[in-house]
Amino acid sequence: MATLIILLSIATFVSTLLGGLFAVKFKNKLHYIMAFASGVLLGVVAFDIFPEIIEQVKTYNFNSVEAMIALVLGFLIFHILEKSILIQHCHEEECAAHHKHPHIGIASALALAGHSFMDGVGIGLGFQVSPVVGLLVAVAVISHDFTDGMNTVTLMLNNKNTDRNSKIFLLLDSVTPVLGAASTLFFKVSPHFLVLYLGFFAGFLLYIGASDILPEAHSQHSSYKLMGLTILGTLFIFIITRFI
Predict the structure, then answer these.
(1) pLDDT tens column, 124-141
(2) Please, what's the b/e burial string for 199-231 (b: 16 or more CB within 10 A of its CB; e: otherwise)?
């Protein structure tokens, strides 16, 4: 069982890495990638994370308000972190003009790496329930980790980081699911903690999707093509979560 968990987590490594390298190669089309990525993030929250929260709340009779508090905290903490970095590292007029700084990209990439670590944890915990559940979780994670890699590179490049630094953080994001899956061989977490984690990261994903990625995709110009890519990204995750 342990061997299978590690092998599946390695597949997430490959999927994330390929997604990020795709974004690097086509960075001149970054606004199209960002439009698609924003839809992906919305889809992950709406069709993957929220249903899991609802299922856990119903199964264990948890207080649903706690998960929503965690969601708000995830949204606000990253908002405060991002704006604090802006205030600290650039003059007021520069921030108003650009709203970008490499440290914001790094903070975003680190947060995504944390999410990827918990993706790996999700695979391991799925196998703690049963081999079938673990395999289904792994397939879902591998499928959307391609876009996780894209999101990492997109956020780095969009905030004026170099290709080299973007690839370094892509590698970090690719490795963390393996570490997360391996860690579950040594511990178990309560369902209550899992629900709070899911709520927190739903808030984080909503923030970077709605506040960072989507507005930037339309910063140069808006078009029906960009709107269509956002919808396509959402449908992509909907299909994955319905049929896998």
Answers:
(1) 887 886 787 688 678 768
(2) bbbbbbbbbbbeebbbebbbeeeeeeebeebbe
Please return the burial class of 51, using the count of CB atoms within 10 Å of its CB with bins 0-12, 13-18 and 19+: exposed
Is the pLDDT at 96 greater than 70? The verdict is no
Single-letter amino acid, residue 110:
L
Token code pair at residue 55? 């299922």
CA distance 214 to 211: 7
CA distance 102 to 88: 12
- Total count of domains within the chain: 1
Main-chain dihedrals φ then ψ at residue 101, nearest 5 degrees: -160, 145
Q: What is the pLDDT of residue 87?
A: 57
Which pTM was predicted? Answer: 0.69
Q: Which amino acid is it at 241?
A: T
- Residues 199, 69: Cα–Cα separation, whole Å: 8
8 Å CB contact between 211 and 86: no
Whole-angstrom distance, CA of residue 72 vs CA of residue 159: 24
Domain extent for 225: 2-243
In the numeric block, which tokens belong to residue 12?
């997430």
Contacts of 138 (CB under 8 A, 6+ apart): 8, 9, 11, 12, 123, 126
Residue 186, SS3?
coil
